[in-house]
Amino acid sequence: MKIHKKAAFNEIFVKHDAHINRYIKRIIQLFEEGIQTVLIHGMSASIEKCVRIALQINDQYCGITYKIKTSSQDNKSGIHIELTKQLLI
Alpha-carbon distance 89 to 83, whole Å? Predict the structure, then answer.
């Protein structure tokens, strides 16, 4: 049995059975609280949902940049998306 690390305040682990709006609301809340970077993680069935979340946040906010990394562990694919809110001058 693997023990996963506890999520940091700016990390979101997406589950395939949770509704996408739950994650979008949380990311917006973090950005409105002044957090500049949010990390979204998803494995296997959650990958598509992670991408949809990142694209919707990108559509709703001006000045969002993102970096995408992929991984694999125990024959499961994963995605890790870093969303960064740029300061607008």
Answer: 19
How many C-beta neighbours within 10 Å does residue 31 have?
Answer: 20
Whole-model pTM: value is 0.85
C-alpha dihedral (58, 83, 76, 16), degrees to nearest 10: -50
DSSP for 29-78, written as a single string:
HHHHTT--EEEEEEEGGGHHHHHHHHHHHHHHSTTEEEEEEEEEETTEEE
pLDDT means per 10 residues, the chain with 89 residues, are 67 92 95 94 93 94 91 90 84
- Signed CA dihedral, 49, 71, 43, 81: sign only: negative
Residue with the two structure tokens 């609280």: 33
CA angle 68, 79, 29 (to 5 degrees): 75
